[in-house]
Write a structure and sequence with these properties.
alpha+beta; Peptide Deformylase; two-stranded antiparallel ribbon
Length: 178
Amino acid sequence: MSLLPISIYPDPVLRRKATRIENIDDEEIQVLIDNMIETMHEAPGIGLAANQVGRPVRLVVLDLECREPGHGLLVLINPELISASGKTKSEEGCLSIPGYFSPVTRYEQVEVRGQDREGKVIEIEAGGLLAICLQHEMDHLEGKLFIDRMSALSRDIFKRRWKKKLKEEGEQEQPCLD
């Protein structure tokens, strides 16, 4: 296994819609899963979508064990939202936008269907942190970031701060932070 570089906003791969994985048994997909798990744990993070490591395919890994015992490692391939209800607001961050956190409104309860790494269909009914993480990672697969769910004013403030941060860190100035 090896660590993968995490794409940082505004890397264009973060805005690409992920493609469906047709051959789950493909050795390359299985290696990607292992590498994503290792990368997520090392970051450290509680969720990671394949887009975030430069691979726009419909794959997410989550591990909430450190925050919610009983919610250990979850590999979800080709996930889709089946149903959702209620609203909740919580502070979110993202490995692709390091050091930035903001309140985001999401569904309180979700039902998600996908496949595990062996190709078995799984359905997950979730609330709390798991529901939030599932939505956050599935947004990545659609080319969306949590900043897209903030108010226009909050998003404008973020973009100005992020641009300043990149400039201070010596990054090339980005002409447009979408």
